[in-house]
Amino acid sequence: MKNHWFDKYNKFYFGIILGLLFPIIGFFISFLVIGSGHSLEAFWGIFIKDSSVFAVEITETYNEIRQNILIFSLMTNLLLFYFSFFMFKIDRFSKGLVAITLILAALSMLFIY
Predict the structure, then answer these.
(1) Any idea what the Cα angle at residue 36 is, between residues 75 and 44, rounded to 5°?
(2) Mind spelling out the 3-state secondary structure of the chain?
(3) 72 Cβ partners below 8 Å, 6+ apart?
(4) Confidence (pLDDT) at 113
(5) pLDDT per position in the chain (113 positions), as tens?
(6) What distance in Å separates the CA atoms of residue 77 and residue 23, rounded to the nearest whole number?
(7) CA-CA-CA-CA torsion for 42, 47, 49, 51, nearest 10 degrees?
(8) Comparing C-alpha atoms, which of 24, 39, 9, 8 is closest to residue 69?
(9) CA distances from 50 to 53, 55, 58 (A)
(10) Contacts of 93 (CB under 8 A, 6+ apart)
Protein backbone atom coordinates (compact mmCIF):
# COMPACT_ATOMS: atom_id res chain seq x y z
CA MET A 1 0.00 0.00 0.00
CA LYS A 2 1.27 3.41 -0.92
CA ASN A 3 1.73 5.95 1.87
CA HIS A 4 0.21 9.35 1.23
CA TRP A 5 0.83 12.63 3.00
CA PHE A 6 -2.61 12.52 4.60
CA ASP A 7 -2.26 9.03 6.14
CA LYS A 8 -0.66 10.46 9.29
CA TYR A 9 -3.81 12.56 9.86
CA ASN A 10 -6.13 9.55 9.65
CA LYS A 11 -6.82 9.57 13.38
CA PHE A 12 -10.13 9.92 15.21
CA TYR A 13 -8.95 12.78 17.40
CA PHE A 14 -7.75 14.83 14.41
CA GLY A 15 -11.31 14.69 13.10
CA ILE A 16 -12.66 15.87 16.44
CA ILE A 17 -10.14 18.71 16.72
CA LEU A 18 -10.76 20.02 13.21
CA GLY A 19 -14.48 19.42 13.67
CA LEU A 20 -14.35 21.87 16.57
CA LEU A 21 -12.13 24.43 14.81
CA PHE A 22 -13.91 24.63 11.46
CA PRO A 23 -17.25 25.89 12.87
CA ILE A 24 -15.34 28.81 14.36
CA ILE A 25 -14.02 29.57 10.88
CA GLY A 26 -17.59 29.17 9.61
CA PHE A 27 -18.78 31.71 12.17
CA PHE A 28 -16.34 34.28 10.82
CA ILE A 29 -17.42 33.47 7.26
CA SER A 30 -21.05 34.01 8.30
CA PHE A 31 -20.02 37.32 9.83
CA LEU A 32 -18.53 38.39 6.50
CA VAL A 33 -21.62 37.26 4.58
CA ILE A 34 -24.54 38.03 6.92
CA GLY A 35 -23.28 40.65 9.36
CA SER A 36 -22.20 43.30 6.94
CA GLY A 37 -23.79 46.18 8.86
CA HIS A 38 -22.70 45.08 12.33
CA SER A 39 -19.47 44.95 14.24
CA LEU A 40 -18.17 41.56 15.28
CA GLU A 41 -19.15 42.28 18.88
CA ALA A 42 -22.74 43.18 17.89
CA PHE A 43 -22.94 40.13 15.62
CA TRP A 44 -21.81 37.88 18.51
CA GLY A 45 -24.41 39.57 20.74
CA ILE A 46 -27.16 38.78 18.25
CA PHE A 47 -25.97 35.19 18.15
CA ILE A 48 -25.99 34.60 21.90
CA LYS A 49 -28.78 36.94 23.03
CA ASP A 50 -31.91 35.35 24.47
CA SER A 51 -34.72 36.51 22.21
CA SER A 52 -37.63 35.22 24.30
CA VAL A 53 -38.06 38.59 26.03
CA PHE A 54 -38.87 40.36 22.76
CA ALA A 55 -42.03 40.49 20.69
CA VAL A 56 -42.89 37.53 18.45
CA GLU A 57 -41.70 39.22 15.25
CA ILE A 58 -38.32 40.07 16.71
CA THR A 59 -37.98 36.59 18.21
CA GLU A 60 -38.57 35.03 14.80
CA THR A 61 -35.96 37.33 13.25
CA TYR A 62 -33.38 36.45 15.91
CA ASN A 63 -34.08 32.73 15.48
CA GLU A 64 -33.69 33.01 11.72
CA ILE A 65 -30.37 34.84 12.05
CA ARG A 66 -29.15 32.24 14.56
CA GLN A 67 -30.14 29.42 12.22
CA ASN A 68 -28.27 31.02 9.34
CA ILE A 69 -25.15 31.47 11.47
CA LEU A 70 -25.27 27.85 12.63
CA ILE A 71 -25.80 26.61 9.08
CA PHE A 72 -22.73 28.53 7.90
CA SER A 73 -20.75 27.20 10.83
CA LEU A 74 -21.65 23.57 10.23
CA MET A 75 -21.30 23.83 6.45
CA THR A 76 -17.56 24.13 6.89
CA ASN A 77 -17.59 20.70 8.51
CA LEU A 78 -19.57 19.40 5.55
CA LEU A 79 -16.92 20.72 3.19
CA LEU A 80 -14.17 19.16 5.30
CA PHE A 81 -16.09 15.86 5.34
CA TYR A 82 -16.36 15.88 1.56
CA PHE A 83 -12.63 16.18 1.13
CA SER A 84 -11.68 13.77 3.92
CA PHE A 85 -14.12 10.99 3.07
CA PHE A 86 -14.64 11.16 -0.67
CA MET A 87 -11.39 12.66 -1.95
CA PHE A 88 -8.70 11.40 0.43
CA LYS A 89 -10.45 8.31 1.88
CA ILE A 90 -9.34 8.90 5.48
CA ASP A 91 -12.05 7.04 7.33
CA ARG A 92 -11.04 7.39 10.98
CA PHE A 93 -10.66 11.14 10.57
CA SER A 94 -14.12 11.23 8.99
CA LYS A 95 -15.61 9.27 11.90
CA GLY A 96 -14.34 11.83 14.38
CA LEU A 97 -15.57 14.67 12.19
CA VAL A 98 -19.05 13.18 11.86
CA ALA A 99 -19.24 12.43 15.59
CA ILE A 100 -18.42 15.98 16.65
CA THR A 101 -20.65 17.45 13.93
CA LEU A 102 -23.63 15.44 15.18
CA ILE A 103 -22.95 16.60 18.73
CA LEU A 104 -22.67 20.22 17.59
CA ALA A 105 -25.87 19.94 15.55
CA ALA A 106 -27.75 18.53 18.56
CA LEU A 107 -26.41 21.29 20.79
CA SER A 108 -27.35 23.93 18.23
CA MET A 109 -30.91 22.58 18.08
CA LEU A 110 -31.11 22.93 21.86
CA PHE A 111 -29.58 26.39 21.60
CA ILE A 112 -32.13 27.69 19.09
CA TYR A 113 -35.28 26.01 20.36
Answers:
(1) 65
(2) CCCCCCHHHCCHHHHHHHHHHHHHHHHHHHHHHCCCCCCHHHHHHHHHCCHHHCCHHHHHHHHHHHHHHHHHHHHHHHHHHHHHHHHCCCHHHHHHHHHHHHHHHHHHHHHHC
(3) 26, 27, 29, 30, 33, 34
(4) 67
(5) 567 777 888 899 999 999 999 999 999 999 998 877 888 888 888 888 766 666 777 777 778 888 888 888 999 999 999 999 998 889 999 999 999 999 999 988 887 66
(6) 7
(7) 120
(8) 24
(9) 7, 12, 11
(10) 9, 10, 11, 12, 14, 15, 18, 84
How many residues belong to the chain?
Answer: 113
For helices 56-81 and 12-33, what crossing angle results, to 10°?
Answer: 130
